[in-house]
Structure formats: C-alpha cells, structure tokens
Amino acid sequence: MSSPVRESRLRIGDRVRFSGSVRTVIGLSGTVVRLADPGGAVTEVRLAELVAAGDFERVGVPPPSPLPPSSPLDDLPEAAMAEALWWERHIVEVLRGIPPDAPPGTSPRPEYDPRLVSLTRREQAKAAELRAAGRPVTASAVKQRRRRYQAGGLAAMADRRGTRRTPPYGRADQRVVEAIRQAIGEATDASTRTASYIFWRAGQILDAEHGAGTVELPSRAGLYRLFAALSAGRHTTGSARTRQSLAARPDGPFSQLPAHAPGEVMEIDSTPLDVMVRLDDGVEGRVELTGMVDVATRTVTAAVLQPTTRSADASVLLARTVTPEPMRPGWAKALAMSASALPYRRLSDIDARLEAAAARPVIIPDTIVIDYADPPVMPRRTAGLLDHKACVSMRSA
Fold it and tell me: Could you tell me the mean pLDDT of each successive run of 10 residues in the chain, 397 residues long?
C-alpha cells in the first residue's frame, strides 16, 4: 500500500492551468479563488469548481511529500492488511457469534452461538471450518489469534515480519553499546582519545557494572563498527575544541507530535512578516503574525496580526478557534454555512450563532503546544514541557 500524500495547498502567487490558459492566483477568500490571466483580466471561481475542471493543473509545483502513516495498518503492504482484516472477521465471529459485516438481525450459526457453545468449542469449530476451506489452522492458533485481538485489536492481527527494521547497532549486546556510549561521553571534555582507549575504557565499565568477564566484547572489527556509529559527528578522536563546541550546543527547539484527529494537537507560534505597514499611530513598522494550527488537518483555525506578540493574543486565538466565525461584509455568499455541505439547519437549532456563520469548522483543542521562548498566558493549567516548547493540555483542566 502506498503511503498517503501530504496535501498540497494553493497559495497566492501559484500558477494554475484553467479554461485553456495559465493563470496566476492573486487572492484566496475562503472557498473563492481569484485568478488573473496574462492580459490582466480577473476571474473569481470557487475552489471546488477549479480543481474539478478537466484541464486543471498546478504549473511549476514540485510533487507533494508523503505523510507519516495515520493508521496502525497504513504502513503495511496490501496483502498484510487484507490478511489482518480476514482474520478479524473470523475472530469476531468466534467472540460474538456473528461476523462484523453481518446485517442487523442475523442469528449466530449453532456452532458459534455464545449462549449454547463454550469459547473453546467455538475456537475448535473455527479451526475445523478453516481447514475444510483449505486453510490449515489448529485450534491453538485460533486461540492465540483471539487473545491477540482482544489485547491489541485489528493492529495485532497484522503480520509485521516484512516491516521489521534492523536494529541500529545490529546484533551487538546492548550492554556493550551503552558502555561504549558512556566512554565516548566521558571523552567529550577530556583530551583527544584514540579508539583503542575507548575500547579499553568500555571494558572497564562493563567489568565494574556486571563483573569481570561477564560481558564478552565483540571482535575488533565489530568494536570499530560500533565506535563509528556511536561517535558519528562527535569528533571523539578529532579536534578537542570542535568536540567540546559541538557538545555545548543546545538541543533543537522543535519536535514532532503525532496527531490523528482534529484538535488532538494544536500549535501556536508567531512569525514576523517581511512587509512594512502603517500602524494605528501613523508610524510605519513591521507586524507579527500569530496563528493557531491544527496538526492533524493542517488547518489554520485562527490568526492575529499585531505589531508585537502579546500574551493576550493566545486568548484571542483560543476564543476564535472554539466559536463560530460570523460572516463579514464583503464576503461571498458561497462562504456561508447555509451554502455548505454542513447540516446547517440542525446546527442552527442548537446554536443560534450559526445562523449567520461562515462555513468554517469549529475545532475544539485537546492539547496546545506554544512557543516556550515567549509563552502567552493560556487560560488552562500547564501540563508539561516538550523540548523548548510549552505543552498545554486542555483535557487536564
């Protein structure tokens, strides 16, 4: 199964082919795109109509990059996924009496009815059924599959032998790896050492922790391979000044959080805009854009444009994220919620504010990651730190 592809977003300045000519995107307003042809004529078209056009094509845009898998089975080949789904169907019948795709009102077969037959008998019946169908399976194998399914669900049914990765240090004893890593760390602030000294020091560490002769060192060639992998980029046998300078560098400020549902992880960050604007007092200056982005859907739920980032901006972003966006003067009617595919009438009965709202999804944050260098004051309790960022859990409040 091929990896999912990262969504390629349309931006101002992109060139697209539409209606037989190459045009430039000069404006984006909700679902409305403004296009300018080579002669300067401006056309407004809905995004859905643009991408549905037969000759639509983005000109000069590199291919999209793959996204990390969002499902426990997304990184598996199609054959392994089909095998996992096949096993799930049979195991669910053993547990509940009917397959998961059975229509409502279906009665269990007599040999799988939980009210009449024990679980062991049902496992034996399933093994006999599969053997008769040409799949040699024992009752103990069905039992193992059933236990795995109860413990891990569908993901536990997958055969991941083809996706297992080789350990980064091969089959080397983990105790040897940790001893060499410790010896390399001790040499960071000392004078330059040789690889032979690192091996000798690693042997001392192993004898002190596990007893003399308890842990056997690999061959000389194996030691050199481990040393090359563990000391890569650290200049252990090189310049002492370079080695100490690299060790003094702080860790990177960024990391990656997996998010599979809207609002699971949201990020707040600020960036200066390389434009000059006229401020309220008439003075020309620069502004900063502070926005909140949903990691799972790559949606900008709110943004604030201010001369300087303030603590109050985070509260404004949170308020705009969890409340409906009202239609504003000048917006196209196609942007209204009443013109979208959302259940407008049912939602407006629940919340009257949705009657004149724009068709923007309301995403409720679960965890918010903010820039730790200048943390805005959030109306929730800080749950912890992630590298050099602050992680605010909305669930903990």
Answer: 48 80 80 81 82 77 46 68 87 89 86 90 93 91 90 78 64 87 88 89 90 87 88 84 79 63 85 81 83 85 78 76 80 76 71 72 80 43 35 42
Q: CA nearest 184: which of 172, 199, 169?
A: 199
Cβ-in-10-Å burial (0-12, 13-18, 19+) of 187 comes to buried
User: 305 with 341: CB under 8 angstroms?
Assistant: no
Q: Decide: 256 and 243 in contact? Cβ < 8 Å.
A: no
Instruction: Give the helix ranges, DSSP H, for 108-219.
Output: 119-132, 139-152, 174-186, 195-210
* C-alpha distances out from residue 314 to 140, 269, 291, 301, 311, Å: 57, 9, 9, 12, 6
CB 28 within 8 A of CB 34: yes
CB 316 within 8 A of CB 301: no
**130 close to 137: Cβ distance less than 8 angstroms:** yes
pTM > 0.85: no
